[in-house]
C-alpha cells in the first residue's frame, strides 16, 4: 500500500494549486483525478479575469498548471476515489477504483458538475443537440441556430463564444434580468445577442436530433415552440460530494463542504478547497483555498510527526 503525507482528490484549479504548494514544501503528495483532465474546468471557453492573462481558456490554463505541478508531485489520472475511511491514529485510508492508499492528510477538491434542467428530451438528445459545453461542441453548430439556457457568467460566456464561432445565438433566461457580471453583460450587448426573458424550457423536441424547444413565459403562462438546432445548458452547478459523504464530512444545506478559514473540515486531517466548498465560485478563489489547505496541512502534518518522534 502506497503511503503519502497528503492525498489531493481532484485535479482542478484548487487541487493543482495545492499540489504545487505541497510539492514545494517537500511533502510526499499525489493528486488523484477521476478523469484525464480537470472536468468542467476544461469547458470554460474564455477567461478575462484571471491575473496575469488578458484572455485564456480554461483548458489552456489547466494544462499550464498541470505541467507546473508535475515538476513537484505526480498526478494519477483516471483514478476515481470511492471512499475515505475516518481518521484514526494510523492515518486516513483512501480507496479508489485501482487500489488503496494511506495518508496523513487528505484534501477534497472534487468540485461540482453541471445542473440539469430535468425536462423531457434533455437526456434523450444529449450529444444530438443538447450540450453542457460550448468549447467541446460549439464548432459543430457553426452557422446554425442555438440557444443558451441560463443567466449567469457561464451562460453569457458560452453565448459570446458561440457567437464568435458564427452561431446564431439566443439566450433563454427565466428571470427579467441577468445574474452575470456587468462586464459580461456589456459584451453581450456588443455582440447583439438577443435574450428571451422570463421564460423556461419545458421540453426539448426533435426526431433524430434537436429541432425546437417548448418555452413557457413564467409571467403570462404563454407557451410556444422555438426552433433551434442546439441547446447549450448553463444553469448552475451541484457539488460532487459523494466522497465527502463517505468520510462523514459536514455539509451545508446545499451539499457543500463546511470548512474553517484554514480549509479544515470537521474531521482532523481532512481539508477541502475549491467549488466543493461553495461560496464564490471563481478560479482565483479556488487557487487561494488550495494554497491555504496545502500550507496548513504541511504545518499540521509536520507538527504531528514531531510529536510522534518525541513520544
- In the CATH hierarchy, the third-tier topology of the largest domain is known as FAD/NAD(P)-binding domain
Unreliable stretches (pLDDT < 50, length at least 5) are none
Estimated structural class:
alpha/beta
- Mean pLDDT equals 93
Broad shape: elongated
Specify the CATH architecture of the largest domain: 3-Layer(bba) Sandwich
As a percent range, the share of strand residues is 25-35%
Q: What is the ordering of alpha helices and beta strands?
A: EHEHEEEEEEHEHEHEEEEEEHEH
Tally of individual domains: 2
- CATH H level of the largest domain: which superfamily? FAD/NAD(P)-binding domain
Helical run tally: 7
Distance between the termini: 25 Å
Helix content: 25-40%
CATH class of the largest domain: Alpha Beta
What Rg do the Cα atoms give? Answer: 22 Å
Tally of strands: 17
Largest sheet: 7 strands, mixed
GO molecular function, one term: thioredoxin-disulfide reductase (NADPH) activity
GO cellular component, one term: cytoplasm
Protein name: Thioredoxin reductase
Keywords: Disulfide bond, FAD, Flavoprotein, Oxidoreductase, Redox-active center
Question: What do these coordinates show?
Answer:
With 311 residues, the chain is of the alpha/beta class. It folds into two domains: 2-113 and 238-310, FAD/NAD(P)-binding domain (3-Layer(bba) Sandwich), CATH 3.50.50; 116-233, FAD/NAD(P)-binding domain, CATH 3.50.50. Helices cover 27% and strands 26% of the residues. It has seven helices and 17 strands. It has helices at residues 13-24, 58-69, 134-137, 153-164, 182-190, 242-247, 283-310; strands spanning 2-9, 29-32, 75-76, 81-84, 92-96, 100-108, 112-114, 130-131, 145-149, 168-172, 195-196, 199-206, 210-217, 223-227, 230-233, 237-239, 270-272. The strands form four sheets. Strands 1, 2, 3, 4, 5, 6 and 17 form a seven-stranded mixed beta sheet that branches. It has a five-stranded parallel beta sheet with strand order 8-15-9-10-11, with helices on one face. A hairpin with a 3-residue loop joins strand 12 and strand 13. Helix 1 (13-24) runs parallel beside helix 2 (58-69) and helix 1 runs parallel beside helix 7. It is elongated, with a radius of gyration of 22 Å. The two termini are 25 Å apart. The relative contact order is 0.18. Keywords: Disulfide bond, FAD, Flavoprotein, Oxidoreductase, Redox-active center. Residues 4-290 form the FAD/NAD(P)-binding domain. One of its GO terms (cellular component) is cytoplasm. This is Thioredoxin reductase. GO terms for molecular function: thioredoxin-disulfide reductase (NADPH) activity.
